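@channel sequence for tomorrow's demo:
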Amino acid sequence: MSKDPLFQPLQLGGLTLPNRIVMPPMTRSRASQPGDEANDLMAAYYAQRAGAGLIVSEGTYIAPLGKGYAWTPGIHTPAQVAGWRKVTGAVHAAGGRIFAQLWHVGRLSHTSLLGGQQPVSSSPLQAQGVNVFIAGEDGSTPGFVQASMPRALTVEEIGEIVDQYRAAARNAIAAGFDGVELHGANGYLVNQFIDSGANTRTDQYGGSLENRLRFLGEVARALIEGTGDASRVGIRLAPLTTLNGCVDDDPETTYLGAAKLLGELGVGYLHIAEADWDDAPLMPVAFKQRLREAFPGVLIYAGKYNAERAREAVAAGWADLIAFGRPFVANPDLPERLRVGAPLALHQRDTLFGGGAQGLTDYPTLAQAAA
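structure tokens (generated this afternoon):
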């Protein structure tokens, strides 16, 4: 058996992952309209990439007010569940494993995506300078616009959203997913409660760290109930980034507290999103080691990893799995390319969001390119 750290199996609850390579969630905005339903094209896209140890689907919104980008899939209607069943069936037929990323964008939305309604958040704070992807006034000309001003959720509404997460987890299992991942990163709704700079509440959901983590804990418990198995629940966090306007005054303390809470709940994994822009600061290894001490489950890291850095991370022990985002767009057989050291194809930036098969399912594998 190969001693390559990236190609050792790993047990995640009842799943045996054949390698340490994860395809992370990446919005591609190709859901069928009307209805925001996953479709055959998406099924082909994910099935092509079933060689990953684990696939996490693109963010799929849990309720109408959770939508933040045009043509993204949902998971709250029977038709949406049926659409996702095509995807999971194709991935499983190709030998893969797939979790659904459950998504509520909170304030990172626009009234045009919400039937004219105002986005919701922990607090009435607009994400200044943050743009979201909309279909345009004619419904077909896409573009990016400033996120709308949100309103603060009431305590009753917070409870309703927790229920929506529970229902979405049940829908994901009904759709054939192997588990679910909560999007608690990148400035979306859960992150808007966690980070002190995005949360000005004075009730039980704001102020102290315990209060700011309350919503995260309630949602995590709901997902465990919805899936029926804590090992089938993962949580994505972005501890030291400031994406989409979410900033915390003491991020290391905050996210070590979050990791400890989620470890006590027994969730299967934490998916840590590192900064991935050019010249971004690296997350200190000392902090990663403290996360390992705080959280007893599986740890996934994502953020501009190449094969060498990924192998080093897994061998060092502070990471169990490494997620490769954009490389998976243009390299459907990415695990095989990493295994043999083959060069990686580059993705087309102008086909990332929206469109059809071009830039989604037409990237060749090594074998196809050599034919």
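heads up for whoever presents: Residues 122 and 153 are 6 Å apart (CA to CA).
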